[in-house]
Amino acid sequence: MEFYLKVCFTVLCLFQWNYAIDTQYMYESCNSNYVLETSLQLETSKSLTYPFQMNCTYTITVPSAKTILVVISRFEVEEKVTGICTDYLNIYDGGDNKASLLNTSPLCGSSVTGNFTSTGSSLTFDFKSDETAVYRGFGLLVTAIENAPCTSAQFSCNNGLCIDTSLKCDGYNQCGDSSDEINCQENAASSTAGIDNTPLIIGVIVGLVVVGGLIGAIILHVYKKNQWKKFLHQHLEDPDVWNPSPSYPVTRKYYRNGNYNTLNIDVDNVPHIHQYESMDASADSVR
Ligand SMILES: [Ca+2]
To answer: How far is the CA of 205 from the centre of ligand 1 (A)?
Structure first.
């Protein structure tokens, strides 16, 4: 078990994979509440595009001492029609859509960027779509934050925010200024420096040897088969040439199977046949 854990950890570090983050979908969890401890990704729906006539709210609440940071990581919603958003997102600064709005106007189109921060411990997202033109929707990174000074269990962002320390170098910008994703390659390199990679190296070498052996066996088999065909062709073309190589014996068994019928050879009077009789097994394996 320890061997496999080391292999998996090494592979993860080598390829710098993002750790999985909790993802919630507004359409599939329409009009629900979520208690958030650290961070989640809020998506419009599980489908490739959000549905027509979607009308959902989603409320997120964090512990009372904390507030909420929303980072827009992706936003693809129908553009305005005659200056009005027909599909749009509103972010309310409270536990329902009666609270004050954090955004100054409904959010739509594909150029929405920036961060939003709650004043309290709850935020409510409200998304509506009409009956025309659906798009991929949005992805929002929602994170529980506190202001500095940070505790030992928190990471101190460059912008003065504190986030859970587990969010450092997880591939997502929970600080809002990306300071939690800085210098991650160096950290990953140093963290792998103390790992004993011997099992991984041995595994790779054994794998290469096995694969190389298989390839060699296939090449040898094809080579022998071709040589055997070449030899037979030569003797069928010219019956006077009768000088079989010990590597490709022609035996009594081979003659009596009818392979040389056209040559009218007296099997019992061909000395080479007796010479190679003991190699019947070898000839059979080649064929
Ligand atoms: Ca992060």
So the answer is: 36
Q: In angstroms, what CA-CA distances link 56 with 61, 72, 212?
A: 17, 18, 58
> In the numeric block, which tokens belong to residue 82?
């005659």
Identify which of 111, 126, 128, 165 has the alpha carbon closest to the alpha carbon of residue 143: 165
Q: How many angstroms separate the CA atoms of 280 and 50, rounded?
A: 72
Q: How far is the CA of 162 from the centre of ligand 1 (A)?
A: 12
Instruction: Give the distance, in angstroms, between the CA of residue 240 and the centroid of all CA atoms in the same chain.
Output: 64
Distance 250 CA to ligand 1 centre (A): 73
Q: Report helix, strand or coil for 8.
A: helix
**270 CA distance to ligand 1 middle (Å):** 84
Q: How many residues does the chain have?
A: 287
**120 C-alpha to center of ligand 1: Å?**
22
Cβ atoms of residues 217 and 31 within 8 Å: no
Extended beta strands in the chain, E state: 23-25, 32-35, 39-43, 55-61, 67-76, 88-92, 115-117, 122-128, 137-147, 154-156, 161-164
The pTM for the full model equals 0.61
pLDDT of 6-43, one tens digit each? Answer: 444 444 444 444 557 899 999 999 999 999 999 999 99
Cα gap 100→238, rounded to integer Å: 100
85, 107 Cβ separation under 8 angstroms: yes
Peptide bond into 149 cis (omega under 30): yes
| Residue 157 scores a pLDDT above 70 | yes
